[in-house]
Every structure is written in structure tokens, then in C-alpha cells.
Amino acid sequence: MQVTAGDVLVSAQTGLRLAYKQKNLILACQYVPDHDVSVKLPDGGGLDTRAIVASKEMLNTTVMRIELTPEGGFVCEPGQYLTLINNDGLARSYSVANDPCRDGRIELHIRLLRDGLMSNFLKEKIKLGDSLTVRGPAGHCFYVAEEGSDYPIVLAGTGTGLAPLYGIAKQALAKGHRGEIQLFHGALDEADLYLIPQLRKLGADFHNFHYAPCVLRGESDRFYRQGNIQDIVMSALPIEKSRTRLFLCGAPEMVNALKRKAFLGGLASKHIFADAFLPTKTATIAA
Ligand SMILES: Cc1cc2nc3c(=O)[nH]c(=O)nc-3n(C[C@H](O)[C@H](O)[C@H](O)COP(=O)(O)OP(=O)(O)OC[C@H]3O[C@@H](n4cnc5c(N)ncnc54)[C@H](O)[C@@H]3O)c2cc1C
């Protein structure tokens, strides 16, 4: 249920994801109010927002940045994901690359697939000023300041897996994180890298932020590290393994393999946060 007036009992929110807690959702079976409250069933509408397309820009030949202005605000941690739903009910998840509360806009990085239904819709059909439904947010890949904010953070992702990692890195730095932050962005070819100037600037502005582009089919004397991102990340894990937080986003094979290797390599499973960009099986949902 969703509490619309009256106190929300924290004990009735145990186990709910942050986004639901922020929307005042509660588990009715755990909710024993001692005063009058108003509640309603949380239909999709309780978690949906309309958002206007504010900008579209190519970041490289296959990745498009789209910015959306949510009507009535959108509370979300950078790194979480949302579901975009178009007017035909086509729905796909995308990770949030910024702090929408601070910026007033939601930044998404869309990898354009030649036969992709949503990526083609976003590239070819939708125009500036058009609106979409945004559902969510969801996901546990986001920065939480703990233990004096001095533990190491490792962020690793391939392709548009950079979107949530970029959001998490900026958020950690904005919140004054003091530990070392390493961001590994993996690409097949050099041309697949993107946001290079922005990430370099972050490294110049913050002494504890280190950007490490990795290119599988690269050359050895370029500005990036040449090789498989999994090997590069494993060889660069901080010595303080028990305190290291690892964030993994992007291709499911990379995410799952690195998750396993990092755990076997000494990282605590509770400190490994992962979002695999799984392809959607069901094409549409009711808008
Ligand atoms: C939690 C989560 C977060 C995500 N965040 C992002 C994000 O930030 N940016 C982003 O671009 N995508 C992200 N995705 C993937 C996204 O939801 C879509 O799956 C993707 O955009 C393809 O949708 P489409 O409609 O364009 O293609 P579809 O019409 O669904 O697929 C077209 C064809 O491409 C294949 N395909 C689909 N996805 C992939 C893939 N990733 N790699 C290779 N082949 C694929 C399909 O099997 C199909 O054959 C995320 C997915 C999840 C689950």
C-alpha cells in the first residue's frame, strides 16, 4: 500500500527498495497504525512520471545521450535504473548517469542497436518536446557514504555500463568521498570509448579519482590500457580488499565473470554491487 496521509512506519518498510520507501510504500501486513492514516493501492501510476525529451546528442557513433525533464520531479540515486515506456507500451530499462534531483534532468546513455526497437524509437522517432513515461527507479548500484568515506571504490563497466558508473563516481566525489576511486571503462575498439574529456577533467579536479579506459582490440602505446577489462581490473584491485566497494555494470558476461573473480579474489560479497544489462525478453507492457 502507499501512505498518502499520516506517518509511515519504518518497520513496515523493511526490505523494500529505496525507491519504494521514498514513495511512502509500506507492507500492509506489517503496518499497525495507532492513528488515522490514508492509504491507497500503489498502481503503476504511483511509480510513474511523465518526462519531456530535453536533448539528444551522439557521444560516439553508437551511443546517444538523451536528457529528460521529469514533470513533478524524479527522486533517484545516480547509478540506479529506470524503465522508459513509450506510448505503444514498449518498455526498456536504462541507467541514470546523473543526479536528477540536483540537475532537474535525467541523463541516459543509449547504445543504438541496429534492430533495437527502443533504441531506434529513441533515435529516429522521438523528438525534443515529446514525452515518455518513466517508471522507477530501481537497483542497488549507487553510492552510500559509510565508514568515514575513506574506503577504495572500483567501478568497472563495458559500453553504456559507463552511464551508472559515471553517475556513481560524480556522486561520491560530490559527497566528499576521500578514498581512492578507480573507474575502468571497457570497449572493444578505441572508437567505442566516450566521455573521455569529461572523465579526464574529473581526474584533474579530484586527486583521488582515476580514469582507466581499457580497449580489447587496441594498441599498446595509446592513452588507454590494452587488454581484457577483467584481467586489468583484477590486477589493479586495491590492497585493502575487505573494505573495497566494487560496482559492475554493462554486458552480463563481464559483470557475472568479474563478480565471481572479485569474490574469489577476496572482496566481500556485500560490497559487490552489480547491474547486468540483460536484453528484454517481453517486448511491451501496458503503458
Ligand atoms: C538494469 C538494466 C540497465 C540497463 N541500462 C542500460 C543503459 O544505461 N544503456 C543502454 O544502452 N542499455 C541499457 N540496458 C539495456 C536496455 O534495457 C535494452 O535492452 C537495450 O537498449 C536494447 O533495447 P532495444 O529495444 O533497442 O533492443 P531490442 O529490440 O530489445 O533488441 C534487439 C536485438 O538486440 C539484442 N540485444 C538487446 N540488448 C542487447 C545488448 N545489450 N547487447 C547485445 N545485443 C542486445 C536482442 O537480443 C535483439 O536481438 C539496461 C538493461 C538493464 C536490465
Description:
The chain is 23% helix and 29% strand. With 287 residues, it is of the alpha/beta class. The protein has three domains: 2-42, no CATH class; 46-138, Elongation Factor Tu (Ef-tu), domain 3 (Beta Barrel), CATH 2.40.30; 147-276, Nucleotide-binding domain of ferredoxin-NADP reductase (FNR) module (Rossmann fold, 3-Layer(aba) Sandwich), CATH 3.40.50.80. Bound molecules: flavin-adenine dinucleotide (FAD). Residues 81, 92-95, 109-111, 113, 115-119, 160, 163, 275, 277-280 line the site of flavin-adenine dinucleotide.
Distinctive features:
287 residues, alpha/beta, 3 domains, six-stranded antiparallel sheet, six-stranded parallel sheet, 8 helices, 14 strands, 23% helix, 29% strand
**Main sheet overview:** 6 strands, antiparallel
Gyration radius over CA:
20 Å
Widest sheet: strand ordering: 6-5-8-3-4-7
Instruction: Please write the string of helix (H) and strand (E) elements.
Output: EHEHEEEEHEHEEHEHEEHEHE
How much of the polypeptide forms β-strand, as a percent range?
25-35%
List low-pLDDT spans.
none
- Morphology call: globular
Number of beta-strand segments: 14
| First-to-last CA distance | 21 Å
The CATH architecture of the largest domain would be: 3-Layer(aba) Sandwich
Q: What hetero molecules are bound to the protein chains?
A: flavin-adenine dinucleotide
Q: How many structural domains? A: 3
Helix content: 10-25%
Mean pLDDT: 92
The level 1 CATH classification of the largest domain is Alpha Beta
Considering the protein shown, what is the CATH homologous superfamily of the largest domain? Nucleotide-binding domain of ferredoxin-NADP reductase (FNR) module
Structural class: alpha/beta
Note the total helix count: 8
- According to CATH, what is the topology of the largest domain? Rossmann fold
